[in-house]
């Protein structure tokens, strides 16, 4: 069996912890404890509690390069997915991405501060519909996504060995 490269793989030391918020500290998009993660920190506008909006600024470097000088398309998808997932907690649900579609409108540059924003669109039962965009500071939209998130219930969480977050 191959030996994991410890410079790239961190120990699964949190795996016994059933608290979803502690386990989420290694989320590739937003987990502060993931040394190789994107460390995105969002602010969430809930002034209209039915339509939360999440926003962050970010800047990536060649670690996440795809086309020379630009962010890899899979990372662009990650950014958009992460932004949309940040709308679920303000809506008081745990949910996972079921479907997302992306328009890659322009290459997304490395080494530039960019704006990532998401907005809740609508809900039909367990189905949450969100959208997200990556913009230049001048408002030019470089990529946008629509996502369908499905609310996870306590039974599904328990199957994964996890407990609900404290409200
Ligand atoms: C555990 C850790 C938790 C952790 C929770 C926190 C995690 C946050 C992470 C950030 C977000 C991610 O990246 S999450 C990681 C990426 N996502 C995943 O790994 C999810 C993998 N998928 C799944 O586990 C499952 O498919 C679920 C749980 C998402 C849903 O399964 P399900 O409960 O069986 O639901 P299913 O019947 O398939 O679909 C629900 C409804 O959506 C409809 N539907 C399906 N596709 C479409 C579509 N393209 N357009 C319209 N509607 C659609 C179906 O017809 C149905 O409608 P109707 O018949 O009900 O009307």
TrEMBL record:
Gene Ontology cellular component annotations, sorted alphabetically: cytoplasm; membrane
Q: Identify one Pfam family in the record.
A: 4HBT
What does the record give as the reaction this protein catalyses? Answer: decanoyl-CoA + H2O = decanoate + CoA + H(+); octanoyl-CoA + H2O = octanoate + CoA + H(+); (5Z,8Z,11Z,14Z)-eicosatetraenoyl-CoA + H2O = (5Z,8Z,11Z,14Z)-eicosatetraenoate + CoA + H(+); tetradecanoyl-CoA + H2O = tetradecanoate + CoA + H(+)
Superkingdom of the organism of origin: Bacteria
Is this entry keyworded Disulfide bond?
no
Q: Domain named Thioesterase: which ranges?
A: 69-142
Q: Does the keyword Transferase apply?
A: no
Q: Which CDD domains match?
A: PaaI_thioesterase
Q: Which GO terms describe its molecular function?
A: thiolester hydrolase activity
Q: How does this protein lie in the membrane?
A: Peripheral membrane protein
Q: Which GO terms describe its biological process?
A: fatty acid metabolic process
- Record keywords, A-Z: Apoptosis, Cell membrane, Cell projection, Cytoplasm, Fatty acid metabolism, Hydrolase, Lipid metabolism, Membrane, Transit peptide
Q: Which SUPFAM superfamilies match?
A: Thioesterase/thiol ester dehydrase-isomerase
Subcellular location per UniProt equals:
Cell projection, Ruffle membrane; Cytoplasm; Membrane
Assigned EC number: 3.1.2.2
Family, as annotated? Belongs to the THEM4/THEM5 thioesterase family.
Q: What is this protein called?
A: Acyl-coenzyme A thioesterase THEM4
